[in-house]
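User: We ran a pulldown and think these components assemble together. Before we commit to crystallization trials, I'd like a predicted model of the whole complex to look at. Sequences follow.
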Amino acid sequence: MELYKLTASEIKELFLQDKLSAEEITKYFLNRIEKSDEKLKAFLKIFPEKALKSAKALDKKKKENQQLGKLAAIPVAIKDNMHIKDEITTCGSKFLTNYKAPFSATAVKLLEQEDAIFIGKTNLDEFAMGSSNEHSAFHPSHNPWDLACTPGGSSGGSASAVAARLTPIATGSDTGGSIRQPAAFCGIVGFKPTYGRISRYGLVAFGSSFDQIGPITASVKDAGLAMEVMGKHCPCDSTSLNFPQETYTENLPETLKGKKIGVPWHFLEQLSDGAKENFLASIETIKSLGAEIIDIDLDILKYSIAVYYILATAEASTNLARFDGIRYGVRSPDAQDLEELYDISRDQGFGEEVKKRILLGTFVLSAGYQEAFYKQAQKVRTLIIRAYESAFETCDAVCMPTAPTTTFKLNTIQDPVKMYLQDIFTISSNLAGLPSISIPSGFDSDNKPYGLQLIGPQMHDVFVIQYAHAFEMATKFNRIVPPQFDKEF
Amino acid sequence: MSKKQNMSSFNKQDLNDLQRLARIKLSEEENQNLLESMQKILDYVELLSEVDTKGVPCCNLVSQFQTKNVFREDEVGELLSRDKFLENSPDQIGGMIRVPPIMKS
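Assistant: Here's a predicted model for the assembly, 594 residues in total across the polymer chains.
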């Protein structure tokens, strides 16, 4: 059986119908990882014994007719900036190479409670800072559509693993596009929920007013399934929203009849030809599903990258102050006194991109510059939130491309601003805390995937999943597996 | 450069000061790379100065559903045990974390 062609929801059905055991499913995906991760380097760690042990326990549970969880027998990979108790969380950094998580992240715990099987931890840009996976302290991951290309970042390992069908579901975290851009680059689905919908407890903090955990999957329904599990209030994260868990996977519509989809045409004028052509084709699909396309004004989004690189670095510089070499992580043995210990440990532990962002954040917060940079950025953030609010008075969701280009060759973008501009379409959802999904929308002339982004008002996560599902049903691009991995191993 | 004269002009001395503030020591090579790259980024973010934000409040809370601080009772809850916590500490003595001297001798 070509299990790799199935979605998580379909695999779970096979398990529930006694057609496959959890052990068989787990072995199948462990074998795929073993045979192909050498090329992709999507994983930092694989848990063969542990995964098989959980699978066998689950098979036993089923035999005893005990109630089974929503993710029963589904292998799940965890981005390596989320804690799994007693496993190493490196965060893609040398600083945490030996850091053993003393507790599990809330999202991880919830997945475990619903009988997901943790199969490994995936690669990321160090501390989730990057759009290409090149800033992982260990190695970059590769894109299954073209191994010379980046899977995107920062959740590049998770996206690469799901796209090559090494796991049906992976978790990601998204501070400025880190779930959606890799999902787009790898031709799969990535969902960033409303800010506060999934607890950040146990996720290593980057920019706390932006960070959200979310699922990376091969279908929209699977993303909904993971949301049903992870989208729960948690008292350990004071920004976690106190709303009941929601149902995402039932009655998913196949039309967009009566919906109004907003497109910021003017803001999108600079799109390159290929991206524009793909986007226009997606708009035609949306129309054919019965939706009305509305022109909206989001010109203010042209400032979103600048706002983000001030606010997110400011938050990162304070969040990363905790890495001092004292309580955990790398401590340099060369230090003679406490000050030296901080300096040398942080020098040896952090990579260049992380140092750059800490210094930048320190700069924009420093006396004399705070007013001009930090406060001005906070005010423009308010204007961006307002612009979205007024857009949502006239439409149900906003539609944009996920990224300005398809994937690019590793180590080709050297200019930092050019790299940051990769996130021009994704960042504003984080600035305004909005639920936002990337879904596959077709291919360029080199057979590299494009992604389409749908953005809804806060707490409209269920609706965003519904609209995306309708688009997916009409296009089915998510069913196309990268040729090199479209086979049994 | 015609642009607003250099609210963000950034030199080697600035980078040195920042390293002290952020407790980050850079190698000579990193110093050179970062100087250039930070200048580029600061030039770019200066774009924001053209936005009229008169009367616009700073954004302090993102969620429209959480408009004030969340408080909780200060109760003893489930905590990490000392042993569990110390498993990750680079150096310890008698159940405590050991650090090098704070004062230079």
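Chain A touches chain B through 75 residues (CB under 8 Å). That may be worth checking against your pulldown data before setting up trials.

User: Thanks, that helps.
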